[in-house]
Amino acid sequence: MVNSLLGRLADALFPNVCCLCQWRCPGRLPLCADCRNELAANARCCRRCALPLASDSLLCGQCLQAPPAFDRVVAPWLYGEYFAYILRRWKFQDDLALTPLMADLWLRSADVTVLPDILLPIPLHWYRQWRRGYNQAELLAGELARALPGLPVDAGRLRRTRATAAQSGMDARQRARNLQGTFTVTGSCDNLRVALVDDVLTTGATAREAASALRQAGAARVDVWCLARTPPPQ
Ligand SMILES: [Zn+2]
Ligand SMILES: [Zn+2]
């Protein structure tokens, strides 16, 4: 009773503002129902890499030709204009209050039936993390683990051992070459079912490289949990 009164008082004193339309919104998360409805779900996609597909095929061409080292990407949202706006605020403008919203967007829409043994955030190179002050994938993994009790996070098991050139503007082949040998695994992953956590999957080159390092370290299954997937290049 006292808690609910205090909660209502806090809502009245510090109302939430929607991060998209800037109107007041009820509830603890800064996204109103109307704006949430504007986000596009990644409903029809490759069963393996979550690439949005125009047809009802189960797998995309790339997964058919060269299956990736990961088993499945779970990416419930499309990286559209509104999603990109929220993500930029979270990732590059230090609006870390958006972390619970990001986790909520994943948790309410992700189709996951079996949980992994451990969550491993995709690491940033130490220099980039030092410059940014945080790794958004690690924040997201921590928030997901809080909502899924018993699921540990290990932000140190996978390391990015060399800095890679910024990848925007590179095609899939250039990204793959840029990333070769980037990740090392510290400790064993023997028979572990791992979920890699990241914000957005673009070409999937980072996830492929990280997953193959984990496979070499003995992981039995590697899934990739991310918020959104970019559409295929035109
Ligand atoms: Zn709104
Ligand atoms: Zn695919």
Radius of gyration using CA atoms only: 18 Å
Oligomeric state, counting identical vs distinct chains: single chain
**Mean model confidence by pLDDT:** 89
Q: Given this structure, which CATH class of the largest domain is correct?
A: Alpha Beta
Percent of residues in helices: 25-40%
Protein name: ComF family protein
Domain Phosphoribosyltransferase: 138-229
Family: Belongs to the ComF/GntX family.
Domain Double zinc ribbon: 10-64
Provide a short characterization of the protein structure.
With 234 residues, the protein is an alpha/beta fold. It has nine helices and nine strands. Helix content is 36%, strand content 16%.
Overview features:
234 residues, alpha/beta, Rossmann fold, 2 domains, five-stranded parallel β-sheet, two-stranded antiparallel sheet, 9 helices, 9 strands, 16% strand, binds zinc ion, DZR_2, PRTase_dom
